[in-house]
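Hi W.,

Here's what went into the run:
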Amino acid sequence: MNDERELIELARNGDRSAFRTLVDSHKRQVYYLALDLLGNHHDAEDLSQEVFIKAYRSIAHFRGEAKFGSWLYRITANCCIDRRRKKQLMTLSLDHQENSDALEARSLMSNTTHPEKKMEAQTIQKDIEQALSQLSPRERTVFVLRHYNDLSLKEIGQMLEIADGTVKSLLYRAVRRLQKELAYYRSDLGIGKETN
Amino acid sequence: MNCKDCEKLLVEALYDELSAPQKQQFQAHIDDCKSCREAFLGMQATLQIMNKRERSEPQSAFWDNYWDNLEDKLEVSPTARPKTAFMHSWTFRLMAAAVVLISGIFIGREWSSLDRQLSEDFAQENLVVPDNRQNNVPQILNNPQGNPSFASRAVQMRAANYLDRSKVLVLGLINLDEDTDELDSFDFSQHTRVSNELLQEAGYLKQALNTPQSRRLQSLVVDLEAILLEIATLSQQSDIPSVERVRTDVENRGILFKINMEELRRQLKENDLKTQQETI
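Here's what came out:
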């Protein structure tokens, strides 16, 4: 961590290579958080770079009270919330396209060779993405930070500067909404579907 | 522990964030209470389904080129300079205060000269500038000579006032955060009251702006009227879906953009007027 502080100090003074080292250390975390929050590669790529540009512009104001990684997470979460709010106003067809992109990207990387299993896996991924897209920006942010990034409720509250009670309330609402959206799968947690 | 207490701990229980005593109490309750047990197991099952989500891994070229792509963008993004000791000093603060004070005096003088100029115009016509906020009587009726220049300016002023107030109202509403706890008990009575006042004003303005030169402004008043109607019919408390509908309508109709454009036009007109007066 001391090394990181030195790098931050150098970056503050305009040392581009120090900033590059910081980017290399954190780019995957930032990208994957953006991907979890936005649901597709293109937006995640664009947003992760926006985060580093913002960090570069404002690194002079980073006081070092939090970890550099947490600071980047916070910028990422806030940028994603803004972006998703704007995107919520877009048409359903575009949302559908986004989900299709995510699905296609995953299907290309799928190692499954059996067509039936491949199709089933694709359907589950599509339904999960669809369920996530039903959450409000803040519900999704809290859920993703807790469920996929393993931050505690307290850490999420500190990062987003909201009360612990609000974090719990958002997470509760998120899980309940996901439960409703994925009710189809609940009869068989082996990810089979209800046969009624 | 009762069911309400149990519900409050559900999220922490799902992610194993309960303290040992809480965990014991929670477990004891769900062992006894079928509905709480089902709620907990249902949510737990949902999280297991969410665990099936797979992240797509970008190709290695993406990571290889990451810095190069970023660096291109950084070229046009200068880093913020850290505050120097000078910026913390009393000299700097005094200088900043002086700049603000001088700017304030300058703006005040400019503003009052514009105000004086308008007052003189009205005085020449033996008339008084009306109080737009309270008086709903069409201003043309107050003009004994029926001077079209005066009437037009009074309507423009009244329209400007209507747009300003509507903008504040709409901005306040669309910037509300639906995810905060405070909104659960948010009181919209003030919003509905102001909306109703503005709707009355819209009724007058629609007629008063019925001239070929004011078509665009009239259309904006009508667009805003639709938004104001939605706001006026908000429930007194926590009407989140309706707020969301207002936001969408404001966005779809480009209301804030149109208001900003109208403000810009107004400003340009005032500047032109001022220049003409100075030339004369």
